[in-house]
Amino acid sequence: MGDSPLSRRTFLSAAGAAGIAGLTAPLLSACGSSGPSGGGGGGKKTLQVWALQDDGQNPIQQAALDDFNKSSATKLKLVPIPDSGGSTYPDKLRIGMGSPNPPDLFFNWGTGSIQDYAQSGRLVDLTPQLTSDTAWKNSFLPSVLDAGKAADGKYYGIPMRGMQPVLLFYNKTLFTQHGQKPPTTYDDLLNLVTYWNSQKIQPFALGHLDAWPDLMWLEYLVERLGGPTVFADILAGKPNAWSNPVVLDALHRIVDLVDRKAFGTNFASVNYVNDGAGVLFAKGKAAMHLMGTWEYSNQVDKHVKFAKNDLAFAPFPTISGGKGDPNSVVGNPTNYFSISSKSKDVNAALAFLKKEMGSPMYIDKLIKAGDVPAATGLEARLSASPNPEFSKYVYQMVQKAPSFTLSWDQALPHVFTDPLHSNLQKVFLKKMTPEQFVQTLGAVK
């Protein structure tokens, strides 16, 4: 299946980590860029390409570099960076980007994860290249490519991984046995909460202990109620953006769901990362689970019989009177490669992105590893996926999405991460009111 399913959210959510830890040995060697005369002398250049270590995709990235290096005078070297040992990848990237020899190309999450670098002029603006080369721009799904923009509206990243929207997973066998259908409206969802509780079955699994699963509920409720501009205003730091009535409405709906026992009565002690919520769902003790696409891989790897016979998926329901487009999605659009403005050879770095990130070889390798790439025209090729039905569903879902909002804890600057997680947990536990939540987040600077 490629990378470990439970590791996927770990890698994707690392962008929210705060604090700068000491340099590790791998990082010191990574920062020691070979310089203009590196890589064998004779004036040849070697560019450093930073990516996450051990995420299952390194061999695919290495194959792309090897292909490029065959015909390029400037060589590219993959530098896998560990996201462990008390220091996260974003911390190490922050140190590397502040050094005299920053990485030439580097893996990131777009939006908030690159905002500081874009603002300080440390990234190459790719907008002119994408505008002038429409074939290149049109080779990526628009909603995903747009998620690689910074707050200034310019493109700084090119998609280099699979897409991971949040879906509503449900137990189709359980639903069929009880004559129920997955919810298409929020009223349907509330009716299902009542029904499953009446049958002594928990309506939704929720890994509350890990904090970030709670956030998916707030993200989708805000999206369906108010559309993507509500969070866009928060991301842009507009005055009183957190106090938008839509955010308050969404938070009150979460409290209502808790009161209705939508997540059972013991969700405060359930985790996701150690498969607590996944087990509840797989064993039929919970009927539904709102989670990113990595949940599919998790079930395939850990609960084979359930994944094969019972696992189904649907979009988050619409809300009557809501301004959001029912086709819009939230989650993790993808990961991106960005170019440092201090790169020893910007043209070579750009040539690599143009030649390799959309190449048939690279895309096919991602598909075979279980990823759903953000490239256009993949319908037929997704048949080579380990799970073609699911891959095609995810692809079509994102393909028709007018917007794809990045998970809030990854989109916002890292200073928001802890307050966002801890205070939303308090709302779920009814230890903080929605009004107190928006006031607290509105005070974060």
From TrEMBL:
Pfam families: SBP_bac_1
Domain of life (superkingdom): Bacteria
SUPFAM superfamilies in the record: Periplasmic binding protein-like II (SSF53850)
Listed InterPro entries: Bact_solute-bd_prot1, SBP, TAT_signal, TAT_signal_bac_arc
TM segment ranges: none
Protein's name according to its UniProt entry: Extracellular solute-binding protein
